[in-house]
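Narrative of activities, Objective 1.

The group set out to show that a structural description can be obtained from nothing but a protein's sequence at a throughput compatible with the screening campaign. Below is one input-output pair from the validation batch, recorded exactly as produced.
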Amino acid sequence: MAVLVALLREESAVGKEDAAGALWSLAVNADNQVAIAKEEGALAALVALLREGSAVGKEKAAGAQSSPSAPGTKRPRIPSSSWAAP
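Output recorded for this entry:
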């Protein structure tokens, strides 16, 4: 997860999009959702991409945050109020 979070922070829009897409793919698993939320800087980087990224980056960051959990599980979520610029 740390490598993907590092890619979310780099200058390349394509790198950010690819990292968010990988996190989206991983986030279909409830254990991975928790691991993503616990990874230092992951949620902040996804929020930054939602605020300032390309259209593709925003879509993938939203997908990484909103992937459905397994039935009966709870997971951390990024409050939608955090998506808007301060």
